[in-house]
Design brief:
The chain has 17 helices and 28 strands. With about 550 residues, it is of the alpha/beta class. Strands 1, 2, 10, 11, 12, 13, 16, 17, 18, 19, 20, 21, 22 and 23 form a 14-stranded mixed beta sheet that branches. It has a 5-stranded parallel beta sheet with strand order 4-3-5-6-7.
Length: about 550
């Protein structure tokens, strides 16, 4: 065991849980810096622009003790919605250390949306910071179900009527970690609600840690790496990346918000080895202009949450350098993950490195011990090459939806989680993502896969982003339309883009209309994935009008 790197020891550890996680990290790494902060912490005993592994463990212990002092009981749900600084993930660990169940929320949620989540899980304790409270709540009366209001951040900024966590942490000496069963609920991560009301995916220490520990062990990343972290830590993807980074022992440069210019500047200034983002982040950085920055220090890049265009991968790999051997330069490697909230992050992994190529749509192999099947509508396993619903089993699978046994029974059947995603496997066991079932467009007898069409639409040189959705049509039931944003300085009309699509995309799947919107109007979620339900609502009556019959007929012939 002594010869094993720390990340391999952690991967095979059986006694690691969310309550003792930072204790173990501190034992292994002590005063090594866990993160540098773009915006410093300003707690009384935890301030400054750097935090060590030992200080992070002390913060978690003090915060857990403070929550107990304030009356938080084991099993109680505790809502947390703060700005995206490092105290957010640390407080999630602290809630688990106190034996309670953390309910992290997106800092962009408004009071009514928070109220639904808090009411759904029965949380009466809420941790907010001043910024989120003033921007999104404003009045404690907006959340009448909350009985215990706790302010994160410096004591001087605590809103009226809040208990200052800073004050209580500074007066407590800390305490031990709660004893957790590995299958005991420790957190509830809510889905984005793109197909209805958000549902709370219940997570245990086993589901949150297993796949992340293994991913940390298999990725060629070491403790000397420096990474840029700007993902939302309240989302399971960002929280999972935090766990992976801790297991590896790397140093993160923690940024509260994503800004393409500031991230690129940080990559250059910090000589970052690693960046993990979502495809929309990469698109924004490309639009900003990556050639203006020295990104040669980058060794690894990663992506998840949505389909990653191959041209983005190649552009960033070309800028980075994995290693040099005389005149030979190996480009940076790129890791893509397929996962979802209900899978606690990682399900499959694909690594592009030194000439290793994958067919379009491939999202890699399952990360052991995860298993993947492709099922037909009756739940029978399909042979390689056939498209069906992706089903997953493994330790990362959620225990179910909080307080919703009907949705849980629909989600998990015979131990397999039905993802709602359409995919296929090849004879090598690789998974290919085709589309989300809810986004497949049934057009005149054809199944049109929106992801496939989006890739083709984005071939237009003027486009920065594109979302293809199905809208009602009186003749074909549904037809695809493309909602797009333009690159800065680009000039193109909807008619010109539609004509280009008709020239380059097969008629049965070609968008029947194009709508250009401003970049700020594209409805991105917390991980910058487009909320297509909102686009379907906004443009749902596009072909339902009193003057549209001739246009409909023309569209159906196109």
């Amino acid at each position: 065991m002594r010869l094993l790197p720390d990340k391999f020891k952690l991967a095979i550890s059986r006694d690691l849980d969310l309550a003792n996680f930072h204790d173990r990290m501190a034992e292994l790494r002590g005063n090594k810096v866990i993160c540098k902060l773009h915006e410093p912490l300003r707690y009384r005993d935890f301030s400054g622009s750097e935090l060590s592994f030992a200080e992070a463990a002390l913060f978690v212990d003090r915060a857990a003790s403070a929550l107990r002092d304030l009356g938080v009981k084991p099993g109680e749900r505790v809502g947390i919605n703060t700005s995206n600084n490092v105290d957010l993930p640390l407080l999630v660990f602290a809630i688990a250390r106190a034996g309670a169940i953390a309910v992290p929320m997106n800092y962009m949620l408004k009071a009514s949306e928070m109220g639904y989540i808090l009411g759904n899980c029965g949380a009466e304790t809420l941790i907010l910071d001043r910024e989120v409270f003033e921007a999104n709540v404003g009045d404690r009366g907006a959340l009448p179900g909350v009985k215990r209001w706790i302010a994160a951040g410096p004591s001087a900024e605590s809103p009226e009527g809040f208990v200052s966590l800073d004050d209580v942490m500074s007066s407590t000496t800390g305490g031990g970690a709660a004893r957790l069963d590995p299958d005991q609920p420790v957190a509830i991560f809510y889905t984005s609600g793109t197909t209805g009301f958000p549902k709370g995916a219940v997570m245990t220490s086993r589901s949150l840690l297993t796949a992340q520990k293994i991913a940390a062990a298999v990725l060629p990343v070491g403790p000397n790496f420096k990474g840029i972290f700007c993902l939302p830590a309240a989302h399971v993807m960002g929280f999972g990346c935090y766990i992976i980074g801790c297991c590896v022992g790397l140093q993160a440069y923690f940024m509260r918000h994503f800004s393409p210019r500031e991230v690129l500047e940080a990559m250059e200034r910090e000589k970052a080895d690693l960046f993990v983002g979502v495809p929309a982040m990469y698109a924004m950085m490309l639009a900003e202009g990556i050639d203006k920055y020295d990104l040669s220090s980058l060794k690894m890049l990663g992506s998840a949450a949505d389909a990653m265009p191959e041209e983005y991968v190649e552009a960033f790999r070309e800028k980075g350098t994995l290693f040099r051997l005389g005149p030979f330069r190996a480009r940076a490697f790129f890791a893509e993950v397929y996962g979802m909230v209900e899978l606690a992050g990682v399900a499959t992994l694909k690594v592009a490195i030194m000439g290793l190529r994958y067919p379009p749509g491939c999202v890699g192999w399952p990360v052991w011990p995860v298993r993947v099947r492709i099922l037909d509508e009756e739940g029978r396993e399909l042979p390689p090459g056939e498209v069906g619903e992706v089903a997953v089993s493994g330790p990362g699978v959620t225990a179910g939806y909080w307080g919703n046994p009907e949705a849980t029974a629909e989600l998990i059947r015979d131990g397999w989680l039905r993802t709602g995603d359409m995919g296929r496997k090849d004879r090598l066991g690789r998974l290919f993502f085709v589309d989300r079932a809810k986004d497949v467009i049934k057009c005149g007898g054809y199944s049109v896969f929106s992801v496939e069409v989006e890739k083709e639409v984005l071939g237009h040189p003027a486009l920065a982003d594109a979302a293809v959705v199905g809208v009602p049509h009186p003749l074909k039931k549904q037809v695809p339309i493309a909602v797009v944003t333009l690159k800065p300085g680009a000039d193109a009309t909807e008619e010109e883009i539609l004509a280009w699509c008709r020239e380059h995309i097969a008629g049965y799947k070609c968008p029947r209309a194009v709508r250009i919107i401003a970049p700020e109007e594209m409805p991105y979620g917390m991980t910058l994935k487009v909320r297509k339900l909102e686009l379907r609502r906004r443009f749902g009556d596009l072909f339902v009008d009193t003057e549209g019959e001739e246009r409909l007929e023309a569209g159906s012939r196109a």
